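Researcher: I'd like a structural prediction for the single chain below. Treat it as a standalone chain; there are no partners to consider.
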Amino acid sequence: MLIIGTIVLTVEDIPRASAFWTAALGYRPRGEPSDDWVILDPAEKGHWSGREASIALSVTGYPQHYPPRIHLDLYAEDQSAEVERLLSLGAREVDWQGYPEDADWVVLEDTEGNRFCVVQTGPFTADR
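Model: Treating it as a single chain, here is the predicted structure.
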């Protein structure tokens, strides 16, 4: 059986992106970042092979594509508080016209332009 080990995000500035994602998710660098690569692990992940997904930040030199073909959904019990916290860390709101009236998500982008959604979940449930 496969598990997601690492989700790789393309960035231009490793220190800036690493600061954002470690503060946003409470992740920590697995090791010393290089000029073009760092892996961030959940704090509770004891070994690289653990089941918790990591995030890698990679400088590739390729431009971002819009709309992106993949993005993260981040679940929040208090969406508005998390959106405000992420904006204070450097996230930006995406001016997106595609929200339905009953949308339970907000589209943001990180300091590098990688889009992600903050999804209102209430108490976390197995179906989300």
